[in-house]
Amino acid sequence: MSSTTPASEYIFLFRGVHWDKGLSPEQLQHVMGQLVGWFDALHQQGKVKSGHPLGDESTTVEGRRGRMIADGPFVESKEAVGGYLVVQAKDLEDAVAIARSCPNLDYGTSIEVRPLLEECPVFRRAKEILASAA
Amino acid sequence: MGTPTTKSDYMLLFRGTDWDEGLSPEQLQQVMSNWGNWFQGLIDQGKVLSGHPLTNEGKIVSGKKGRTVADGPFAESKEAIGGYFYLQVLDLDEAVAIAQQCPGLDYGIQVEVRVVAERCAMMERAQEAAAQAQQLAGTPA
Amino acid sequence: MHDVPDKSAPPTDVSHLADHLFREESGKLVSVLTGIFGLERLQMAEDVVQEALVRALQTWPYYGIPKNPAAWLTQTAKNLALDLIRREKLFQAKEPQIITFIENWSESAGTEESPAFESEITDSRLRLMFACCHPLIPQESQTALALKTLCGFSPAEIAKAFLTTEAAIAKRLTRARQRIRELRIPFEIPSGAESAARLDGVLQSLYLLFNEGYKASSGDSLVREDLCREAIRLTELLARHPVGNAPRVHALAALMLLNGARLQTRTDSEGNLLRLAEQDRTKWDRVMIGRGIYHLAYSAAGAELSEYHFQAGIAACHCSAKDYESTQWPQILSLYNQLIQVDDSPVVALNRAVAVAQVHGPAEGIKTVRAIADGQSLDSYYLFYAVLAEFEAQLGNHEAAANHLRKAIKLTDIKSEQDLLARRLQECEARRPRETMA
Lengths: 134, 141, 438
Known about the structure:
A: alpha+beta, five-stranded antiparallel β-sheet, B: four-stranded antiparallel β-sheet
């Protein structure tokens, strides 16, 4: 699984379904304090490039010329992304280590860690194919 | 962006990493150049602030204290996210209209349009105040 | 590919949230929203508030904590409530009126100078308090409901405090909400003839809430402290309002504060229970004692004397003694003598016996205990034997003391109490004459 071109930027996609259910205001405040602290520390170390929470509403566009427009996926769905963070890390291993320190994991959130690329892999593949076809 | 009209931020998440299967080199080239032009155009208009493709590798971290670290699957999946754009546009309609222009749609890519949760005015003020306080602290009396 | 980094770094010196901010704000917001939605839609108010807190959780970590977190939460709850009202078309004819109210609410809530609205919030909270403590709701449901709605406890936390299951608490809450709907319990501060009796009901519930937290016997210690704190908060809120500005309300607040001030010192750093004589008095909470004395002074206005008065008086005697030896036992005994007139429960009688022994000697203490034991069901109460053991030990009867302690240990399931009793047992056995150790 080792990357041939180690990327320096990684995106964290936060996913979680109703992980806050059953927590009292007091517990929510506690979780929030931990999260703010985590974000803050990453910022101070200069590891965060950007990050945003995403709103609950979502619209999906698909089909030829984007003919189909549908609401969803909804935040209730497992696939829905609740927020993201672009993080600077040495390599994938380092990025995973940062992700593992996220306090929200204890409450059922999962984090997808993906390397950011300057060039789309599909296009790179396309270029290769084109090169070999030439 | 000289106009004072309020703009909102949106994310376009491109789902599907298997869409190139079975395409001819010619088609691939076409999609590629269409996509490139589309992206460049949006940047020139100041509508895309950033955008990145994601590689098909990566990990999913979950469980208490991040105990579970699993591989993808991110390759050749309909749901996996293959890239994103960060947009700054007038409203959801404009964001959806941009999504509808995505050249990958014809090949099965799904574009998810998400509102970036607003930073409320109160937070902006708090940050300004914090920044000012820092400045003041930095200037000798 | 281009990348224009978005400047989204949160301020680095994020001010920390006030302790219990979420809990306190949720109690306020649930009360105000219940006033808007109606008591029969209590659950809806709770859900809206929870959602507002979750929104905070989703955004604050990214952008930093807002300068006025309470105003942010209010604003968000207001927006969510407006969405809900418009989407569900809940109120039909009343809708425009309600929307106007909510909009005004948020405008005044953002600023700190809105005494009119502050008093509106207080009124809403008291209305909810009176509704939760309505005599037609079963007692155990009353306290659970008050904790859930007014204090923002989760069913799991309430279950921990009451040593029961989450499911049992959920059932109590459902039953309470059902009763409210069925009986159309009003969302109002009672007035006129029924107000005194209704106030007593609320005081009873608050007292139970406090006691649940205060009794050293059981439960998670952090949750128990929270129970005490919440009971004090609600009682003081009540005492500040004209409807609750009665001597017995101040007396209740005083008794909670004067006992609560000593809560932290009842265990040592390892969680072992400490007896009054062993507690570090320098660690008693001076601020709470001060507030307690303040309420005690107000409780003396008027001719009214309640059981809360005597209990507060006893607590004040302990708090004002600079060490165990200088405790004013004759005064405590006289207060117990009065208390037992209004509350002749065996537990009060047992506590009185301790004061009797302090004033008249351990032999008198034993006599007093024996007198209550007649026909009463104290034999299965571990403290009965623990108290007797104490008196016997003071008389030098270490053998008898040890026997009582063994019984006491068997009668309690609580580890910290067993440990304290076992410690005493060891001391007694060590002092027992050698020849009796066969």
